[in-house]
Amino acid sequence: MRRPLALLAALPLLATSACGFLGGSEEEADLQVYSARHYDLEAAFDAFTEETGLTVEFLNGDDDELLERLKAEGQNTPADVFITVDAGMLWNAAEQGQLAAMDSPVLAEAVPADLRDPDGRWAGLAMRARTVVYDPEAVDPAELDAEDTYAALGDPKWRGRICMRDETASYTQSLVASLIDLHGRERAQEIVESWVANDVQVMSNDVELLETIDAGGCDVGISNHYYLARMLEEDPDFGVALYWASQEGEGVHVNISGAGVVEGSDAPADAQRLVEWLATDGQSQFVDDNHEFPVNPDVEPEELIAGFGEFERMPVDAAAYGSLNAEAVEVLDEAGYR
Ligand SMILES: [Fe+2]
């Protein structure tokens, strides 16, 4: 029996008793998941229940909110598993003592080393590529710089033609953190300033960004790949194409959605079993509905995104994205990116 819980957004962060937030009369499931994924998890959890007999309930919120809630609840938390949508946030949750180490040969086998914590406190479960998208009626992909595609959007030829995501999005912040990690702060600052000098149009979500390109409001932009996959699923003639960035350089910037066992969990073995299942038998169930790439190299991506073709990716450095987040925010602010 798995049921989604109410949205957390409006609730004050209160320490609750073990079953407090379930509302007393509700029967408690075996596992409680705090999830920042705003995508459907029910099918995957139902399949897990069918295979293992363990029931799962989940609570949605955003990464920051849920981490604050875990910290406030401490050892009294009802949560067993924390799922985030950003590598930096996984690092952050571990750094703040909210995740218990998993000693898991299963995860070591299923998840590439850069997509999991060396100390076993979290593992990536789904990969999302933040790459360049363009209007094929306005842009010949040969015009894009294959070596450093992100930085080259600062070339004056793109003036007034680029759309990007707003400065408050973790997607933007982790991309800029990766630029700082790669090129140093000074160069990252120059890159962001060159986008601003090109009159970048800043959008509040990736769907709006893609729709703007489709409508001719921008020629080129940066988006997570799965939003484009969603648009193409609805309308195969949607007028935006994907370009795998920096294939002759450092590779595409990717981020992960991943999970760890909550430090205060009263069922850490079952919680670890869920994380392991999501990385193995449950991989396709977990990633396919949202058109994400499996982290497990033995699992094939679903058809639509497989059609985007193979790509080289930058290694994910969760510690860098997490520890450079504040600097990334400063770089964006100082560049006047908004
Ligand atoms: Fe997203």
Features:
338 residues; alpha/beta; D-Maltodextrin-Binding Protein, domain 2; 2 domains; eleven-stranded mixed beta sheet; 11 strands; globular; binds fe (ii) ion; iron; Ferric-bd
Question: Describe it for me?
Answer:
This protein has 338 residues and is an alpha/beta fold. It folds into two domains: 20-127 and 255-306, D-Maltodextrin-Binding Protein, domain 2 (3-Layer(aba) Sandwich), CATH 3.40.190; 128-253 and 311-334, Periplasmic binding protein-like II (D-Maltodextrin-Binding Protein, domain 2, 3-Layer(aba) Sandwich). 37% of the residues lie in helices and 16% in strands. The chain contains 14 helices and eleven strands. It has helices at 42-52, 63-73, 87-95, 105-110, 149-152, 170-183, 185-197, 206-214, 225-234, 268-279, 283-288, 303-306, 318-323, 325-334, and strands at 31-35, 56-60, 81-84, 99-100, 123-134, 162-165, 201-203, 220-224, 241-243, 253-262, 293-294. Strands 1, 2, 3, 4, 5, 6, 7, 8, 9, 10 and 11 form an eleven-stranded mixed beta sheet that branches. Helix 1 links the parallel strand 1 and strand 2. Helix 6 crosses helix 7 (185-197), helix 6 (170-183) crosses helix 14 and helix 7 (185-197) crosses helix 14 (325-334). The protein is globular. The termini are far apart. Residues 6-25 have low confidence and may be disordered. Bound molecules: fe (ii) ion.
